[in-house]
Amino acid sequence: MIFSKPVRMATTALLFCISAVPAFAGDVTLDNLTIQEDKGVLRIARVDVTNTNFTREEVQRLLDTSADSKGSLELLARFTADRMTISGATFAGDEGTMIFAPIIATGVDKGRVARLAADGVDITLKNMDSGPGDLKIKALDIERADFAPLLNAVLAGRPDLMDFQAEKIVWAGFDLSVADEHVKADAPGGNRIRMSLRGLNATTQYQGTIPVLSSADINNLVIELPPTSEGARSLANVGYKKLDFSISGHMRYDPVTREMTIDDYTMTGVDVGRLVIAAKLGNLDPALFGPGAPEAKLAASVLANMSVLELRFVNEGAVDKGFAFAAEQQGKTAPALRSEVSMMAGQMLPLLLGGNPAALPLARGVQDFLRDSRNFTLTLKSRGAPVPLSSLAALGDPATFFALVDVQLKSNQ
Predict the structure, then answer these.
(1) Are 216 and 248 in contact (CB under 8 A)?
(2) CA dist., res. 380 & res. 307, Å (int)
(3) What is the distance between the alpha carbons of residues 344 and 276, in angstroms, rounded to a whole number?
(4) Are the CB atoms for 100 and 114 separated by under 8 Å?
(5) How far is residue 328's CA from residue 314's CA, in Å, rounded to a whole number?
(6) What are phi and psi of 272, to 5 degrees?
(7) How far is the C-alpha of 318 from the C-alpha of 61, rounded, in Å?
(8) Tens-binned pLDDT, residue by residue, of the chain (413 aa)
(9) Three-class DSSP labels, the chain
(10) How far is CA 165 from CA 18, 150, 194, 210, in A?
(11) Contact present, 89 and 100 (Cβ < 8 Å)
C-alpha cells in the first residue's frame, strides 16, 4: 500500500520465507545478496538454510522477485527446509527505507511452517505529499501455519480461494506516525497522525481445515490526531483527545451439529464503554469457514439461524459525553435533555413497534437507560425453533417479529 509492487513483492518473499521437513538434505549459505528493484535496492547480509530440497541457485531465485515474482511464488510452493534464517536485510529506494530484524522459519514444507518468527521491520517513508513518515512493525510469531492455500490461490489467479491457517499468532503490534497534509507542521501540537497497536494474540484449533475453537485479543488500537485538525476538534467537542479500542472474543463451532457459540465477544473503548456480544447460531455449513466462491458462501449463510443473541452495553463515558455535547448545542442542561429524550422515547417507541404489547416493557427499559445510563442488556431468543437469519432480515412487520422472537431489555441492573 505504501511501496510500489516490486518492493511489496520483495517484502513478501522475505516474510514468507517458510516451508521444512524432508527433502534431499542439503545446507545453503548466501552472503551479501544485492537485488536491484525498480525503485530501490534490497540487500541481505546473510541467508542460512539447513536440510533443504533447494540448490544454492534456487534459494537465491526464491529471494529475488525483481525479474519474476510469480516464479518466486512457484518456488516457495515447492520449498522445504528444517530452518531458514535471514539476517541483516535492508531496502533503500526512492520511496523510503526498510530495515528488517532477523527472520527465522523452522519446519518449512511447501507453504507450511512449524514456526515463523520475525523480529520486526523499521520503515521510513519519504517523498510523500504530507511529509516523511515512520512505521515500526514489531515482533511477529506464528506457529503451525499453512500458507499453501494462499500461495496456490495467488498462482491460480483465484482470490476467492485464498485461505490461511495458523494455530497461534502473537504480534507485538505497530507504531505509525505520518503527517496530516491538511495541517501545517508548525501548528500548535504539530501535525502528526499517530496510530499504534499494543498487541494481538490469537489461537485456533482445527478439525481438518475447519476452525472449531478460537480466541483472540486485540489490545489498544490507539488513534491520535493533530490537535488543530478537523478530526481532533470533532473529537474534542465530545470530550476525547484520542481513541483507544480493544477487542476480545471466543468462538466454538461443531461441524457435526453445525452450531456456533460466540462467548463474550467484547469491544471496549477507553472512556467510551464496553459492548459484549454472545450468540448461538445454527445450520452453519462448514464450507463457510474455508476457501470457496463468495456466491456459494453467501448462499450457505442465508440458511443460518439464530437461537439466542445477547448484547450487553456498559457505559463508561460515551453516553454522558454525548448528552453533554448535545445539551450545549441546544442551550440546555444535560439532565433536562435526558429527561426530554427519555419521555419522547417512551411515547414514540410503542408507536414505531405498531402498538405491540411487547413494546411497552421495551420502552420502559429504554427510558430507564436514558435517564441513568449505566448499562443495558438486550436479549433476543427464538420462540420455539431457531429463527432463520434470512427471515429476520426480511421482517418489516413488528407483530411478525415478536411472534418469532422474545425480546427483553433490562437497564441498569
Answers:
(1) yes
(2) 8
(3) 27
(4) no
(5) 24
(6) -115, -65
(7) 55
(8) 333 333 343 344 334 343 333 334 599 999 999 998 878 899 999 999 999 999 999 999 998 877 667 888 899 999 999 999 999 899 999 889 999 999 999 999 999 999 999 999 999 998 777 778 999 999 999 999 999 988 988 888 888 778 889 999 999 999 999 999 999 989 999 999 999 999 999 999 999 889 999 999 999 999 999 999 999 999 999 999 999 999 999 999 999 999 999 988 999 999 999 999 999 999 999 888 877 777 778 888 888 999 999 999 999 999 999 999 999 999 999 999 999 999 999 899 888 888 888 889 999 999 999 999 999 999 999 998 999 988 876 667 888 888 899 999 999 98
(9) CCCCHHHHHHHHHHHCCCCCCCCCCCCEEEEEEEEEECCEEEEEEEEEEECCCCCHHHHHHHHCCCCCHHHHHHHHCCCEEEEEEEEEEEEEECCEEEEECCEEEEEEECCEEEEEEECCEEEEECCCCCCCEEEEECCEEEEEEECHHHHHHHHHCCHHHCCCEEEEEEECCEEEEEECCCCCCCCCCCCEEEEEEEEEEEEEEEECCEEEEEEEEEEEEEEECCCCCHHHHHHHHCCCCCEEEEEEEEEEEECCCCEEEEEEEEEEECCCEEEEEEEEEECCCHHHHCCCCHHHHHHHHCCCEEEEEEEEEEECCHHHHHHHHHHHHHCCCHHHHHHHHHHHHHHHHHHHCCCCCCHHHHHHHHHHHHHCCCEEEEEEEECCCCEEHHHHHHCCCHHHHHHHEEEEEEECC
(10) 14, 9, 31, 9
(11) yes
235: Cβ contacts below 8 Å, ≥ 6 apart = 225, 241, 242, 243
**Closest by CA position to 265, among listed 252, 256, 282:** 252
**Which residue in the block uniquely carries the three cell numbers 522445504?**
80
